[in-house]
Amino acid sequence: MTIAHAIDLILSLKQDNAVKSIYIKDWHLIKQLHSEVEPYTVPDIFADDWMNNIYGEKDDFRFVYAGTRGSSTLLHRDVYTSYSWSTNVVGCKTWYLFPPRAIACLRRFTRVETSELIPSLEALHTLVKDKNRKEFPQLELALGSMQTITQAQGETIFVPSNWYHQVHNDTDCASINRNWCNSVNLPSMYRAIVVELDHAEEALCDVRDMLQQSSRKGKEEWKKEFYGLVQDVAVKDAGWAWKGFWEMVLHNLKHPATAQALRPDGAANVSCNKDQ
After folding, report:
1. Cα distances (angstroms) measured from residue 176 to each of 15, 25, 40, 130
2. Which tens digit of pLDDT belongs to each residue from 120-158?
3. CA-CA distance, 223 to 140, in Å (whole number)?
4. Which of 64-68, 145-149, 195-199 has the lowest mean pLDDT?
5. How far, in Å, CA of 234 to CA of 198, rounded?
6. Which of 53, 101, 58, 60 minimizes the C-alpha distance to 79?
7. Which of 3, 107, 190, 250 is 20 to 30 A from residue 199's alpha carbon, by CA?
8. Which residues in 212-225 are b (16+ Cβ under 10 Å) and which e?
9. What gap in Å lies between CA 35 and CA 29, rounded to an integer?
10. Residue range 93-122, pLDDT digits in tens
11. What are the structural domains, with CATH classification, of the chain?
12. Which residues, other chains included, contact 63 with Cβ-Cβ below 8 Å and sequence gap of 6+?
């Protein structure tokens, strides 16, 4: 569905007083404008943005979200434990946030890292009422750690690394959103990519066995093909994997996203020779 079609649908639903809600998510507005000048100014505190210090035709993580009253996201964390910030241009939202220590409590099986997480706050509240449930045993602990924030028009919220959250539009809303990172949360993102690729590799174990058995090439050849598939799966799911990560790191070492004064205190003042 195009943005124009979504807007037409929203207008028609309002005209008919329909209850259905619509949420436009991950709209790459800046990229779509094909302009070197951004339509808004990024606050200085978020200026050291490695993920969006892009070049060429690379993908970006600069979004616009627009939704009708009652629309919402599912429970999620931002890509590879990146930070995010969101400014409400229009409307009022409620954010429900869970700190990293609550993640295990949101799982179907708390000690299994790959176990399914509760998909939404609505599902959490429903299951909490079932005192005889055998799965998701620690939802009460997760609910006890949840933080609720109301975001008014003109306000900006910062979501720390690895905080799961769900967002409800209390009114019709439009917001500017970015996923971003800097040198501080690079280690967290690195670990998240390792885990994501391990999970993808495990999910594709049948493909690995098939390639291993059918390949007439050497061990290194089928492994190269298999790990290429693993990377492709991760890219389709999250936007990029190792190639995108290391290209981002190298580019930001050569071309810092912002002046040294706007980088985190204690961040390494590292640069690369452009000829390297």
Report:
1. 26, 11, 9, 38
2. 999 999 999 998 999 999 999 999 999 999 999 999 999
3. 44
4. 195-199
5. 10
6. 60
7. 250
8. eeeeeeeeeebeee
9. 10
10. 999 999 999 999 999 999 998 899 999 999
11. 3-106+146-180 (2.60.120.650), 107-144 (no CATH), 185-262 (no CATH)
12. 25, 26, 27, 28, 29, 176, 177, 178, 179
- Taking only the tens place, the pLDDT of each residue in 160-194 is 999 999 999 999 999 999 999 999 999 999 999 99
Find tokens 């951004």 and name the residue.
38
pLDDT at 233: 86
Pairwise CA distance, residues 29 & 19, whole Å: 27
65-82: average pLDDT:
94
Element (H, E) at 246: helix 242-254
What would the two tokens of residue 120 be?
């939404």
What DSSP string describes 189-229? Answer: HHHHHHHHHHHHHHHTHHHHHHHHHH--S-HHHHHHHHHHH
Using only C-alpha atoms, the chain has a radius of gyration, in whole angstroms, of 21
For tokens 């429900």, name the residue.
96
DSSP state of 185: T
